[in-house]
Amino acid sequence: MNINLYPVLRPLLFSLDAETAHHVTLKLLQLAHQLRLPSIQLPATVNKPVTVMGLQFKNPLGLAAGLDKNGDYIDALANLGFGFIEIGTVTPRPQPGNPKPRLFRLPEHQAIINRMGFNNFGVDHLLAQVQSSAYQGILGINIGKNADTPIEDAKQDYLIGLRKSYAQASYITINISSPNTKNLRQLQQGDEIKFLLEALKQEQTLLQAEHGQYTPIAVKIAPDLNAEEIRHIADLLLSFEMDAVIATNTTISREAVQGHRYANEAGGLSGAPVLAASTYVVQGLSAELQGKLPIIAAGGIFSAEDAQQKLAAGASLLQIYSGLIYRGPQLIADILAAI
Questions:
Q1: Is residue 88 included in any domain, yes or no?
Q2: Is residue 178 among the annotated active site residues?
Q3: Backbone angles phi, psi at 327, to 5 degrees
Q4: In which element (H, E) is residue 63 found?
Q5: Which of 12, 22, 261, 264 is most buried by its number of CB atoms within 10 A?
Q6: Is residue 20 included in any domain, yes or no?
Q7: What are 79-103's pLDDT values in tens digits?
């Protein structure tokens, strides 16, 4: 019998600072997995297969990058019923990220502000964790650039991440939309995104020949885009034959949380307040892409209704993160029962 203990645990976890609670939650999940305690987990992965990017997903609901940055908890997270898991963001070299505090909960708004800054142990550590994992499902690896790599050299960091991750990832996500690495979002604009996508596509072709496998590339974009910017990115994604787009990352807007004591904290805002902006981007991309490129929707999914809204807007797959923090594993069960 499966019992949902998260409503009991959440007040205890929320009494801790957000980053401590993050690590404690993952450790508890790991312990439950190691002790094989089904009473605090949900049933095994729901089978609602869908094919996207040429990959067969057991169901369309995945875990967004950011929860397991280093791939340390893959097997434990797999027990929650996800159809796929995305780990990272990982950088070529280890880095500590931004100074603490850097993670803030806004419970009144069901939101989170983070300025973690791609804190991770580096791509080599992550790949060692992937190799030691028993997980056989779809695994995305989300890659970024090191904070001390000049923006004009960012391409090299992404190419390192692509080369190293290619053989072990089911797909690779290019994170060019985090607001927490200086100037990173600049890579979504002008000629910079053209040069980056062109280099990645060329490298993907070489790696396909070298490894005898095709590993798709998804590009993760921001929610803070207008219709013209969405159209421009959609055209480039098609032009350079990317395999998918993830819409969206966190927002720099604070309009929805004005007056909150953390509203002026730097970083990306995620959770319920980003739902509308993220869905707007999904709708815009869907209109431009016309089914030629799949959309993975992330941002503000807190209910089965939110998930259905994303699918109706044109998404093929879904990802959750902040909703999982606030609602726990029951959110997974609710969404999979409804879609």
A1: yes
A2: yes
A3: -110, -15
A4: strand 61-63
A5: 22
A6: no
A7: 999 999 999 999 999 999 999 999 9
